[in-house]
Description:
The structure holds two protein chains of two kinds. Chain A is of the alpha/beta class. Chain A has helices at 5-32, 37-48, 59-64, 67-74, 88-101, 139-142, 149-152, 156-159, 164-169, 206-221, 241-253, 281-294; strands spanning 53-56, 78-80, 106-110, 225-230, 256-259, 273-275, 278-279. Chain A is built from twelve helices and seven strands. Chain B has helices at residues 6-21, 24-40, 47-66, 69-106, 124-139, 149-157, 170-178, 185-218, 225-256, 274-278, 283-297, 304-322, 326-349, 353-356, 359-382, 386-398, 409-430, 443-460. The A-B interface holds A 3-5, 8, 11-12, 15-16, 19-20, 23, 121-123, 146-148, 151-152, 155, 157-158, 160-162, 164-166, 169, 190-193, 195, 275 and B 6, 185, 188-189, 218-222, 408, 410, 413-414, 443, 447-448, 450-451, 454-455, 458-466.
Amino acid sequence: MKLSFWTKLIICFLMLFAADKLIGVIMNYAVMHVKNGSIYEMKYKLFEARPSIIILGSSRANHHYNTHLIEEKFQKKTINYGQDGTGILYYFLVLKTLMKYHKPDMVIVDVKPDEFAPLPNFNPLSTLYPFIDKVAIETRDLEQISPYENLQLKSNAYRFNNQVIETFSSMRGSKEDTQSITGYLPLPAEKRSLKKIDYSNTQFESSMFSYFLQLIELCKKNNIKLVLCASPYYYNVMYDKSIKEAEQVCKKENIQFLNYFNNRLHYFPEELFRDEGHLNGEGADIFTKDFLSRIQ
Amino acid sequence: MLFNSFDFLIFFPLVTVVYYFLSQKFRWLWLLAASCYFYMFFKPIYILILGGTIVIDYFVGIYLEKFSGAQKKLLLIVSIIANVGVLAVFKYYNFFIENTNGFLSLSNHQLQFPYLNILLPIGLSFHTFQAMSYTIEVYRVRQKPEKHFGIYALYVMFYPQLVAGPIERPQHMLHQFHEKKAFNESNLAYGLKLMLWGFFKKIFVADRLAVYVGTAYSGYTHETGSTLLLATFFFAIQIYCDFSGYSDIARGAAKTMGYDLMINFRRPYLAGNISDFWRRWHISLSTWFRDFVYFPLGGNHTNTLKWCFNLMIVFLLSGIWHGANYTFVFWGFLHGSFVVVHKLSQRWHTGNQKKLYPYGAFKFAGIVLNFALVTFAWIFFRAENMQQAWDIIEKIFTNINGELYFKTTTWMLVSLAGIFIVLMADIFEEYGLNVQLLHHKHLAVRLITVSTIIISILLFGTLRNTSFIYFQF
């Protein structure tokens, strides 16, 4: 029997639909049974850790705030939620998700020189997608990524993009194999490039700034102490609108803003940097101690 | 609009379906409107530049038929100046000014010319060359001028090949727009499969490798020679999968509506020598230079010195065509030198090769050597400036034992799997092995292959809407 093109196309769609559903079932099972690795770390931090102090931000937060030192000072469980290549949209959604299950006492937010710039061309929310049914993401948040993101997320294969092998390989072993369960990841001393980036002309995205205002509002409403910090950067940062705006809001709302840019609060020499935007482990320790001494 | 965007996933079926529902009388208008929309996704205002050159070239074409002698030549010059002028302003002006200012500074002059703060219109070199091929062919009386303005505009703007080729010829394309294209299931199926393969090469392979190459090349001062060598190898694969992937998607999208675009790549990395490579790589551009520069200069019907000179001119122009940077000029110079050396050695060697070496081993050695030469030249193509290129080469040759930057095991495994699949597909096709799973005689095999590729792209692809490398040209 010779099938028409349209019949073949329908069969192909049905096969894809079935395969996608199967992927969803298998991957959801696998994600629930991971024992280590970054997916386990995310699952633990979002739904199991229940910390009192949380650190939010991009890779700079991830590599700059030594959670052990913070725990030592406050005697409270501390988790670092800093994530490479992310920004305000990501960590606002992380905070919203955490608030669904547990209320922290203090939130420390690390801001980048281009914090309120338009989103990069990669998806900063992709690490949350394996837990899409449990995280506090709304359609309007997904629309920041693309107008079609909500639609694309109907596909399980898309949801688990680039996470399959890691998920399955994380099903063996134990929690101790995870790189850092508290989220803090010190960088090695070996230096990479020191590229000078001019942030003075960075575009200001008002929708990203509105997430910042929502974050402040969320903390205020729940009586959570909020501290903002612009952690050290190797080159002098020519301010763009974003930092100035954030500083003004903090002043108005009486929120502490510790600005380390341009060695304003503490001098960080070249040997403490891994690259222009990241301190190495030694630098991170010095920074965390100094930061802790300034928190009011 | 990017082919690898969700917008295109809506745009493409809509354009194709409406196209078949329209009568032949209105199809050109629909395709032209769709092409304008496609182009205006990048920077809408630039359509005026494209529109301006289309109007000039259209009327030049009409009047070229009516005039002869000096007037005819003058018309052709007007067209070439209009097209090359746009290129000169948008693509080469700042490069020229940078060099002039540098020269003036060296000779202690205070005078400095201002730079233009403009963005390069996307795909400018592609549609400019396509437009020029029309007026030159009309001038040579090898093509009748197109009387229908809309069809001529569509020839320049046809959306599948508008921003990165293939650079078409009027003899091959114009008549196709006049023909009635009846709905054809096999064209549709073939076109869709070609697009799918293009998407695989771009999203699964090229964009994945781009991450490694970008990291290594941008931080080259702190990377080891071994990392930079691997990054350069990856770039060779990336640029092939990126550009040939684009060409496959373009050809596939056109084919679904019954249009044939020229083949732009024929398994270039399986070429046994550099001349063979250029018969397989970016064919639409290399044949353009052959027909409109190399042959008019005299080609190989001249003495050896002039012949070598002609070859070098073609490759230097090809380098400059890619971009206003000395890295591209040097890339062109390297390829020109390779081709000249190969052509000269061919004259000397003729008849001796097969006697000296068993054919298979000779061919394999040729492929490896050719790939090494081409990959070496890619360093200049990828580097941001000449200093960076030389530094990278120095590191590759002096620091090869250093630590290899290894993103993650998963990343490396998926990348190598992608490279292996593309390489195998090329080898099977090159040697006529009938293992074409996408076109297999059994429906089940075809359906499973299509589903597997789509799922693989979704599961392992780099879904970032990354631009194609050749868009910048």
